[in-house]
Target: S-(Hydroxymethyl)glutathione dehydrogenase/alcohol dehydrogenase
Amino acid sequence: MKVPAAVLWERNSPWKVEEIELGEPGPGEVLVQLKASGICHSDDHGVTGDIPMPLPQVGGHEGAGVVLEVGEGVSRVRPGDHVVLSAIPACGNCRWCISGRANLCDLGRRAVAPAADEQVPARRLGGQTLSALCQLGTFASHAVVSELQAVRIDDDVPLDVAALIGCGVTTGVLGAIRVADVLPGDVVVVQGVGGIGINAVQGARIAGASTIVAVDPVERKRNWALEFGATHVAADMEEATALVADLTRGVMADKAILCVGVAHGEHLGPLVGIISKGGRVVVTSITPVTETAMTFSLFDFAMSNKELRGHVYGAANPVADFPRIIEMYRRGQLRLDELITTRYPLSEVNAGFADMHGGRNLRGLLEL
Ligand SMILES: NC(=O)c1ccc[n+]([C@@H]2O[C@H](COP(=O)([O-])OP(=O)(O)OC[C@H]3O[C@@H](n4cnc5c(N)ncnc54)[C@H](O)[C@@H]3O)[C@@H](O)[C@H]2O)c1
Ligand SMILES: [Zn+2]
Ligand SMILES: [Zn+2]
Model:
């Protein structure tokens, strides 16, 4: 079928909305009518090449919608089901899935680089195959996706907020709770208050942090952070370090979570410096794939028993965790409606990215 979709043809160029050809759902695949897609900074990493996605590419990996058709052998969902699309598949069979670490599912590598002989949903335009980050392509009216990435949710959950669960909410909230392992009474620093960082603030609040210091150069972001549960804010890490030293009488923070739009090695030093002995730094942000250097004192790091932890997708098990996230939303513990700053039609996708870069959105949302 032909559907409108935002396509990236060249690095550092605008998205173009065009009619693409979506294949029929093959074995294990489902056709989803998308209702909404969040605009996540990871899509922009595909634009800059930080994530070296092959081009041309259909954008979007944070979506929700309604299943229209299922391919052969599909058992997880049926037509009519409301689904959140999971950025990472959960095959249910690999050693990671069966040990409750589906965020590390072996099929996750398909998100960026499927093997040549591997079945992924077919998208074409003008005779060319289109790639899609996470094999989702949610900047479109419809998507064909693996059933391993379609997680059924209750029909009463608004599909706009549900879309955000597909990446930003899950990564931010569960990243704080599970990966940073925020404990009641902890002092937590969140650097970068975008769609991910604001949810790390919420996760830290839910986990019972006593003190949450949100760091962002944009004043509007700092004000939002205070509304979502931060207890203090700072414009940069220098200011945050002085603030945390003062608040903790020099003990420093238990956890620090890096959520800036683009991470670089130089971010590590101040983060390692702001945590206490035995503290933990969590790297959520994506770094350009070619960058490998970082500099901080390994002597202090070792002698202070500090930890540096990589983080992908909130250590989430989507089938188990999406309903838990929804329940926190229903009970008012997690604010999701307020995350959507601006809504755009698909034709305005570039305005959505411009607002993200301009610091004007917590999350921009495409209504599809
Ligand atoms: N690890 C994962 O599983 C995962 C999942 C989703 C997104 N990500 C990554 O998380 C990062 C954040 O994504 P997002 O969608 O929230 O981005 P965003 O653009 O919405 O927000 C980034 C925020 O960082 C702030 N910022 C920039 N430089 C800063 C600095 N030096 N100090 C403090 N704040 C700074 C910006 O003002 C902005 O508010 C991206 O790198 C994204 O690719 C990782
Ligand atoms: Zn994302
Ligand atoms: Zn698996």
